[in-house]
UniProtKB/TrEMBL annotation:
It is found in: Cell outer membrane; Periplasm. It holds the Pfam family N_methyl. InterPro entries: N_methyl_site, Pilin-like. It is a single-pass membrane protein. Keywords: Cell outer membrane, Membrane, Methylation, Periplasm, Transmembrane, Transmembrane helix. This is Prepilin-type N-terminal cleavage/methylation domain-containing protein. The keyword Nucleotide-binding does not apply. Signal peptide: none annotated. Its main location: membrane.
Length: 125
């Protein structure tokens, strides 16, 4: 009777592969966290631009300087009798609009969590 050779991986080879995968996971984790924070920064800047664009449109339509209010993931921009809303993401904690009469500009500040900064400001003239 002949004995057939069974090929496969040894225990040492399997342990080495598991160790290499573990090391790669540990090395990649900080890069993933940093990428998430940058994505949150970008999302907040996008919300600030959306609110600023909407505020400019409402200012033209309402023929008055806009004001902003924020409640439960919705920013409401009002100027005169005109009002528009902008849906914002779950990371946003506040949206504020400040009209600068000296520079004739509107500063839109979006406060948020989970990024490298706590707020983003966009200015429209």
């Amino acid at each position: 009777m002949t004995q057939s050779a069974i090929s496969g991986f040894t225990l040492i080879e399997l342990l080495i592969v598991i160790a290499v995968i573990g090391i790669l996971a540990v090395v990649m984790m900080p890069a993933m966290v940093q990428a998430r924070a940058k994505a949150n920064d970008s999302a907040a800047a996008t919300v600030a631009r959306q609110v600023a664009t909407t505020a400019a449109a409402v200012q033209i339509s309402g023929n008055a300087y806009p004001s902003c209010s924020y409640s439960s993931s919705i920013a409401v921009i009002t100027a005169g009798s005109q009002s528009e809303s902008v849906k914002v993401g779950p990371l946003v904690t506040n949206v504020a609009c400040t009209y600068n009469s000296g520079a004739s500009s509107l500063d839109v500040t979006v406060s948020y969590s989970g990024g490298t900064r706590s707020s983003v400001t966009t200015t429209i003239e």
